Amino acid sequence: MKFDREKTRKDIVIENTIFFAVPVLFILFWQLAGKLNLINGIIIPTPYKILEAFISLLTTGKWWNDFSASIRRVLLGFFYGTTAGIVIGVLSGLFSKFNKAIDGIFSILRPIPMIGLVPLMILWFGIGETSKVIVISVGTFWSVLLNTQAGLASTDRKLLEVAQILEKDNFTILRKIVFPSALPQIFTGVRIGVGNAWKSVVAAEMLAATKGIGHLIEYARELAQPAKMFVGILTIGIVGLLIDFLIRKLQKILIRWG
Fold this sequence. Notes:
Blueprint: H1 9-35, H2 47-60, H3 62-94, H4 96-109, H5 114-125, H6 129-153, H7 157-165, H8 170-207, H9 213-222, H10 226-257
């Protein structure tokens, strides 16, 4: 297999066809299996039943109310968590004393799962938006922080030595060498952070919320409505895919400019 050749238009078409064909075939097989009673429709509804549930939620406005509440929380928490992760990651990556100061505390806090923070945030900030946004921010923060630190640490030492020989100032070295080399890993952390943000908001909404995708899933479970549960789960997956797609596009643009 040759890894060094550029992709042709034919290669791109084939890859895109596979990307879309596999999910479509899976859905068709799923629908057929449900029709033939190969799967328990009470537990695993067919795609058609899920579509019917989605249309029902959409026409009543329930889906949009839940989705808009969740996406607002996710975007806010994701923004705060990503910003904090990049800022603290850059500071700890550039200044060893600052890294030593926070390393002990962060090493203790990092293993705590988000679901464990939800009751504490509710106790401190109530069941309003603040507690949910904080949980999402913390969930996003760790992946961005660790990948930012790793990205800065992976800078090619030879490039730094050449820059010092050429007597480049620190700002130029950071702008031209350190940050561009760290960008791919930072974006990896951001992409992981998107998934963590959705996990966090669902956990928070399942425990304390009157609307949101997590509340939709939990309420459907209580009423034994698996089709609506799947609507909520698929909403998270599809929206997460779209956000990840946008982040990858932004990554390509920034790396090209860098």
